[in-house]
Amino acid sequence: MKAVWNGQVIAESDDTVVVENNHYFPKESLRAELIADSTTHTTCPWKGVASYYTLTVDGKSNTDAAWYYPDPKPAASQIKDRVAFWKGVQVTNE
Predict the structure, then answer these.
(1) DUF427 domain: which residues (predicted)?
(2) Which end of the chain is more exposed for a tag (fewer CB within 10 A), N or C?
């Protein structure tokens, strides 16, 4: 699977976990130079508190376009150390 935004591959892995139709990529598959921590946090009743990354590619930013659960609740333990995408990031198996 690949996560692509603004013409660049953000993450690529054959080992994603699908939860609620979102592919969660291993954190180590992300291109670290394209992501930056965000101060945004949200809460999911069954997964826990989510943190976000902002993507920056070729001078363009996509705020909070990736999220992860640093300490997921037990029901979502399979997504620990994994990152999912939205806000125009295309996730494809090509």
Answers:
(1) 1-87
(2) C
Name the residue ranges covered by the structural domains of the chain: 2-92
With beta carbons less than 8 A apart as the criterion, state whether 49 and 42 touch. yes
Do the Cβ atoms of 54 and 64 come closer than 8 Å? yes
- Domain 2-92's class? mainly beta
Beta bridge partners of 61: 56
Q: Is 3 in contact with 86 (CB distance < 8 Å)?
A: no
**What region does 16 belong to: left with phi over 0, alpha with psi -120 to 50, or beta?**
beta
Long-range Cβ contacts of 53-58 (<8 Å, 24+ apart): 53/83, 55/5, 55/6, 55/10, 55/89, 57/5, 57/6, 57/7, 57/8, 57/10, 58/6, 58/7, 58/8
The answer to whether 76 and 24 are in contact (CB under 8 A) is no
Write the pLDDT tens digit of every residue in 29-39: 999 999 999 99
